[in-house]
From TrEMBL:
The lineage of its organism: Eukaryota, Viridiplantae, Streptophyta, Embryophyta, Tracheophyta. It comes from Deinandra increscens subsp. villosa. It comes from the Eukaryota. This is Aminotransferase class V domain-containing protein. The keyword Zinc-finger does not apply. Residues 1-29 are annotated as: Disordered. Transmembrane segments: none annotated.
Amino acid sequence: MSSDNHDRDDESNGATATTDKLSPMDLRSEFSHHDPTVARINNGSFGSCPSSVIEAQQRYQLRFLQQPDDFYYNHLKPSILRSRQAIKTLINAGHVDEISIVDNATTGAAIVLQHVKWCFFQSKFNPGDTAVMLHYAYGAVKKSVEAYVTRAGGHVIEVNMPFPIASDDDIITAFKNALELGKSDNRKVRLAVIDHITSMPSVVIPVKELVKMCRDEGVDCIFVDAAHAIGSIEVDVQEIGADFYTSNLHKWLFCPPSIAFLHCRNPEVPNLHHPVVSHEYGNGIAIESSWIGTRDYSAQLVVPEALEFINRFEGGLDGIRKWNHQKVIEMAEMLVKIWCTNLGTPLDMCSSMAMVGLPACLGIMSDSDALTLRSHLRDCYKVEVPIYYRQPKDGEVDPVTGYARISHQIYNTINDYYRLRDAICNLVSSGFTCKVFQD
């Protein structure tokens, strides 16, 4: 089934009478730990974990605390392998050895970029060779590129994408131009960092086309940062064809924080190591990642339990992806109609998140203004939603410079989006502007 969200009854949802499927009451119970006073339309930042998966995690935690030695020697590695096998199937990897479990996509990025650093240090890459990444790459990944690649002698070129975006062609053209720039002055493009879904603003990137372009251009290392992908869009790593692909399971796959996977097309590539060196160093990236010292590994063990929860939803993971995509589009279109604004992307470039233009009169003219409005919505209206600032182009009249990044997950109801709608309408009618508020 789906839920009773959006005032749909069981019959119209196509729900079955079997106890195995999620009933509306089950769904409310699974997320009853959420603060009921908050309209939480920001699943994209931290995800959500149902109670049944939390309970499974707690059982693992207790088993470790009861007898740590037994758990370490007899249960930890087989349980991690079980999760790796489940991920392999989910993403259509060729072999389980290609799957490493790490804390989050930022850790996955560090592993890849540390590998690139050693390619510079060992003179496989030359000083001044280039790395290409999107201007909208995640901030932590940009910092990792700076820490590993720039400091090793690499030259970084950012792909300037327009926003709002009209089509995939906008991105493909911008990326092609960046690759051409990267090859100028007899340099070689050694690394491409490609988001599958950018975080802010949220845009589904034509990743297969960009990976093929990089292959055709002879880029040595292609890394896809897909922090938001698994659970929100279909992921087939063999079809995508990147050298490395990482995604979080705690954002859209209902696992507790924190767990991600790193897929390595060739896990035997030299100098591929976890940044935390421990006893398994040298035994391959998957085994290195499975033990980085005494810590809580329970989030990495409950992937099968998370999939059990997912399969209780009508249509399983595919049903959840389609439901969230359909609903986030419906809510986004409702909001732009009320606010007389626009969406940041075409509908087919939304996943389970959408960029919704905010009324220009709110006066969002900086990143600081965007944060001010976000905090005001949280503190005064109990609405949690990220706000993005878009710098206006020269000559624009009354431009839409602020966008709300709304998420939809199966626990959301239509009232969450009505709360946001009414809060913004109230601010507009009261003459609120970010500038006056900060003054």
